[in-house]
Amino acid sequence: MTDAELVRQTLAGHRESYAELVRRWAGRVTALCHAKVGCAAAADDLAQDALLRGYQMISSLNNPEKFGAWLCCIALHGCLNWLKAKERSLVPFSALGGEGAEHLMGSRPEHEADSSAKEEDLKKLRQEVAALPEDYRQVLQLYYHQDVTYRDLSEILGVSPATVNARLTKARVLLRERLNQCRR
Q: Shortest CA distance to 103 belongs to which of 127, 139, 77?
């Protein structure tokens, strides 16, 4: 069943149809929010808010075939509003989660010493991704974290597939250069 059919069913009062749309799009919306705000907790909240707003505003969707792009626009606007708020203290996405948090706290058990080089490389990669210009960071995170296709990326970001390709290529080049500089 297509997204458009699920939208039409949702409009006819079938809530379970919107639940299926959420299952299809939640990962991409969340990845988009992570790429935009760089703060895991805020991104998760913003994604959930976008999914709820999508349900509340679904009657305003003029073209059901464009549900995904429409939902991503709702998420992007939510992220932009969050970023504009003044009293924010952003924590980089790279500082959140599993092994990264333990490393930041300085409390790593000695038996993990063998993997410290890999963890350090991963930490550096996350830092360099977070430092990329927004357009490159966004496309890179969506492509690699959510396995989004070029066509889907072009719809989500509102650019052509050629622009998606160019941004991914440039992002990889920038990362390679930055990581090579760190190793010297």
A: 127
